[in-house]
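If you are new to this repository, start here. Below is one unmodified record pulled from the training split, so you can see the exact layout before writing a loader.
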Amino acid sequence: QKLNPKVMAKADASRGRQTFAVTCGTCHQLFGEGIALGPDLTGSNRADLAYVLENVLAPSAVVGKDYLLNVFTLKDGSTISGMVRKETPEFVTVAMPGGSTTDVKLSEVEERQQLAQSLMVPGLFEALPLEQVADLVKYLASSTQVPLPGDKPKTPAVSSTVPAPAEGVTRIEGESLAAKFQPTGGNVKLQPMTNFGTGWSGNQQLWWTGGQPGDILTLKLEGIEPGTHDLTLFTTTAKDYGTIKVAVNGQLRESDLYTEQVLPGEPLHFEKINVSPTEPLQIDIHITGKNEAALPRYMVGIDRVEISDSK
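And here is the target side for that same chain:
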């Protein structure tokens, strides 16, 4: 199908959001909506039409290790196909389209195959009317979430209500660290927060997605003056955020990041932290699990870190 300029000129991102929900959204997330089976599309190169076409028309051309198709043939003759999310000596947890998971007992497996093939089938665009394809492509290129048809667009907050740091307090924005550090699992990126309110410094945060319990994000803060300091870590909470344990110089704090709405979290305080003159200050953030009511996406949001001299 040819996305000519006349068709693209009439494309509507709001209608594309509806199409995304019943096509791409069954396996991918964009702006926090959809099912986290395949890669999160929020931070991908979606505005590049060539990139979008390459990944839609030939989804199996390049498949990451975590997204390979695994086929388990059981001893009773049945088969289970999907992506491996967790594996122990006894069980394998397999994720399947639609968001469901199942535990496969390895003792019941007759044969296991791992294929360099994506669960995404080619020909997605061919199955849609041309106008619907144009709407979807326009939505995929959106830099922020768009309203659904009939909704009134949200007016983004123009400025944060978080006051400037007090005298003697050093503030390090979470988003400034997003490009510098990567966790042991998942990805870290910058996330605009104006759609959720004004309670975030700089209207942005560090957003860790795709992590699982046991994964660790290590942040190393350069330029902190040697000595004894107090440190406060400001987090975000939401219905798909996990529980975390934060370690700073041997001190541990735990936090449950679940709330039904997206909100600034309770700050985590660390007192009398020793900063070496030769080593950066290190913060280790561990995903430990989730609240019983939380969706199993284990996300983490860090708004900022504030450091002051110990009293």
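Two things worth knowing about this chain: The radius of gyration is 22 Å. The chain has a mean pLDDT of 89.
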